Amino acid sequence: MDISDMIHVVIQLDPPTQRNGQSPMRIKRRELFRQSASSITAGGFLHLVSDHLQANPLGNTPPAFRFVHLTDMHVQPELGAVEGFKQCIAAVNKLSPKPDFVITGGDLIMDALAVDKPRLNLQWQLFDDSIKTIEMPVFHTIGNHDVTGWSKQQHISSGDPAYGKAIFSDRYGQGQTYRSFDHRGWHFILLDSIGQAPNSPDYIGWIDDRQKDWLKNDLATTGTLKPIVIVTHIPFLSTWNQVVDSPQKTLAGSSLIGNGFELRKILEPYRVKLILSGHGHVRERIDVNHITHIQSGAVSGMWWKGPVFGDAEAFGLVTCHADSFDYRYETFGWKARKV
Ligand SMILES: [Zn+2]
What we know:
The chain is an alpha/beta fold. The chain folds into two domains: about 5-55, no CATH class; about 65-330, Purple Acid Phosphatase, chain A, domain 2, CATH 3.60.21. It is built from seven helices and 16 strands. It has helices at about 50-55, 80-95, 115-130, 165-170, 210-220, 240-245, 260-265; strands spanning about 10, 15-20, 45-50, 65-70, 100-105, 140, 180-185, 185-190, 195, 205, 230, 270-275, 285-290, 290-295, 315-320, 325-330. The strands form four sheets. A seven-stranded mixed β-sheet has the order 2-7-8-11-12-14-13, with no helix packed on it. It has a five-stranded mixed β-sheet with strand order 6-5-4-15-16, with no helix packed on it. Strands 1-3 form a two-stranded antiparallel ribbon. Strand 7 and strand 8 (about 185-190) form a beta hairpin. Helix 2 packs parallel to helix 3. The radius of gyration is 21 Å and the shape is globular. It starts with 8 loop residues before the first strand and ends in an 8-residue tail after the last strand. The site of zinc ion (ZN) has 6 residues, from loops.
């Protein structure tokens, strides 16, 4: 076998580049080619990685990367939540090898739905103070508790500039509540799963029509070959209510994405590998229809009151290989304080 047959070629753009509703697609792929060096024509995006020739002489094990999924932090002044979140971040910063980035899964603060302005501002300030200690890029997903005033118990109404998703969008979503980006051959989609209930100020799990159109376009541009990770706060699927209540339990509109069936049909032609969620604060894994759905428990456990059904406060650590992933549930040693 000629040595040129074993050359590894990595097509890669770092750091992760972002797409949103207005941005054109960018093509970034990391692939392994078993071909002669003379046929490499992709210009500036190609870098020959000569050290891989020694690390992977058979040319069949592309280098993996890792990312962290932090969800349901529910940052608040009480119960040592800030200290707990910083302890979690310190554990993330110490991971070796270092993850390439962090994705948050929503419910960044304890609650924006039914609080007054001073309480709202205080929680966001505490979240900002904590999140800035992360030593890697962070991409945020919106949760229901990050939406201001969408509740019958609202203290902040629709005339206020902080109402709704404005704070999340402006500060944490780069002007959007949903977006996508590519990283080392994988495509990441962060959904906004928080819909407004009809004829009510409350939220429901829902992907609205505008986002659905954006998603269809985003997927079409991504194509059917690239592996995809979707992050959503509210899950597409969950067995938890059936486990703790009854198999006949009818779920509330706020528990799951109500139009998930329609979304399933949109996603089906594509290479969706993993859908990460939060919201239920439980550990759960469902493998169905070639997609793995994982709820990553909660950084806050039971809202900083202790473990949830025996599972400690934790985060998800995902390793992405060429066309597969591994998932680990990582605790960070937090002990809940007495209420
Ligand atoms: Zn939630």
